[in-house]
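$ ./design --mode recover --in tokens.txt
reading tokens...
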């Protein structure tokens, strides 16, 4: 079978929460001012109660509201696809499958959580959401989702991307969102940074600070984050839950699971429902990150802030330091100094392995994928494609019939400048 499809009523009815299955209790987030463990009330100025509850929940299964499943039907269940033509090109005995999240309207996995977050905010009477976005993938997912629940959406977009990548901004505005280049004059943090350095290109850390300040200062407004936090990873587990069912239909048992990591949400979404199999030693799970931002492979495991200004709670995670500014690689969605605390803990315990790859080999892999399977992957996704291909080559060398499954987090049709640079030989190999 090429495409393994599920019926609409097979969209999962529950999300899977990894917290009760972690090898040790998760160190609590700490309050940025007091350094004491955060209380649910501390988060209420910026998040709705429904999401705070999920963030701290110890329940293994959490019901997906009918209203959310109803919207998931726009693009879910997503297909699991056998990459037969890629296998042939690689002359590998391995069977390669990818879970294709590029079919959503914004073109990535991100609306899986954006829709859920918009729902809980709307239910509690919130009228507007703020967020940050780098290249625009998260901002576009949130603008799409908020519109479906009649919420307004304000996006602080890293200034350099705002200037260089207009098309995601146009998507956000088409879905009714308002987009400002960050740093902006709208917030205290933004004004302060602009006064010191008017020509700054901006950064994700700055944009997060602006979005949080805007939400904290406005009664009817909350903040929304697209990765890293427990509730975001929770919402993404529908990816892995569907994949499990699809592999059963195909009669396959995976040997290797691969995904790319920015903050960890698409990776966790695919991998967490399989983590208990990895504990038995039956399955190797590989998290792939850019060598230019090697959080899991070179970061330090400690408490750190999520943003530059130090407004967010402190999270125990692998981090490169909250003031780390990664080189401007094309995989903008992977340029984050930290990672989800649950993922960091699983890496620390060796249950999940981490690997860092350089930029040019990821594009070589992406182009090979496009020329065999047709779909042009996002630069972020190319990191997963690279390691899936490497594992398939290893299987060929060892003559092993491995089953390799990778998370295809999004398509690259709005990232063609990156491909243009690669094809013209202009990419830097960081
Ligand atoms: C945002 C993004 C990522 C990285 O974010 P995670 O939270 O680590 O999943 C990866 N791929 C695509 C296509 C993205 O848009």
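writing sequence...
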């Amino acid at each position: 079978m090429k495409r393994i499809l599920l019926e609409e009523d097979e969209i999962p009815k529950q999300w899977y929460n990894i917290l009760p299955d972690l090898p040790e209790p998760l160190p609590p987030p700490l309050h940025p001012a007091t350094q004491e463990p955060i209380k649910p009330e501390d988060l209420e100025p910026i998040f709705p109660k429904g999401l705070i509850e999920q963030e701290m929940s110890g329940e293994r299964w959490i019901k997906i509201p009918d209203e959310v499943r109803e919207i998931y039907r726009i693009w879910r269940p997503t297909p699991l696809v056998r990459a037969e033509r890629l296998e042939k090109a690689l002359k590998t005995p391995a069977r390669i499958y990818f879970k294709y999240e590029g079919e959503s309207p914004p073109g990535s996995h991100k609306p899986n959580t954006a829709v859920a977050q918009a729902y809980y905010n709307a239910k509690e009477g919130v009228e507007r959401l703020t967020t940050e976005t780098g290249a625009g993938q998260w901002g576009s997912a949130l603008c799409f989702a908020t519109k479906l629940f009649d919420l307004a959406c304000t996006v602080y977009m890293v200034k350099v991307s705002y200037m260089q990548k207009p098309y995601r901004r146009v998507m956000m505005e088409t879905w009714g969102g308002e987009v400002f280049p960050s740093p902006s004059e709208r917030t205290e943090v933004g004004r302060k940074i602009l006064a010191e350095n008017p020509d700054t290109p901006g950064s994700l850390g700055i944009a997060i600070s602006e979005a949080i300040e805007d939400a904290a200062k406005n009664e009817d407004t909350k903040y929304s984050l697209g990765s890293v936090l427990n509730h975001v990873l929770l919402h993404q587990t529908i990816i892995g839950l569907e994949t499990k069912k699809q592999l059963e239909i195909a009669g396959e048992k995976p040997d290797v699971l691969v995904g790319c990591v920015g903050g960890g949400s698409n990776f966790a979404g695919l991998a967490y429902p399989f983590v208990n199999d990895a504990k038995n030693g039956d399955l190797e799970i590989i998290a792939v990150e850019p060598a230019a931002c090697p959080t899991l492979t070179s970061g330090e495991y400690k408490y750190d802030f999520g943003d530059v200004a130090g407004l967010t709670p402190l999270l125990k995670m692998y981090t490169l330091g909250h003031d780390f500014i990664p080189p401007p690689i094309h995989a903008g969605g992977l340029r984050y100094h930290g990672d989800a605390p649950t993922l960091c803990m699983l890496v620390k315990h060796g249950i999940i392995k981490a690997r860092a790859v350089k930029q040019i080999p990821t594009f070589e892999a992406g182009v090979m994928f496009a020329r065999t399977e047709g779909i042009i992957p996002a630069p972020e996704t190319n990191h997963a494609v690279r390691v899936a291909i490497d594992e398939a080559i290893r299987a060929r060398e060892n003559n092993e019939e491995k089953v390799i499954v990778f998370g295809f987090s999004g398509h690259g049709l709005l990232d063609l400048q990156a491909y243009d640079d690669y094809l013209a030989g202009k990419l830097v190999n960081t």
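exit 0
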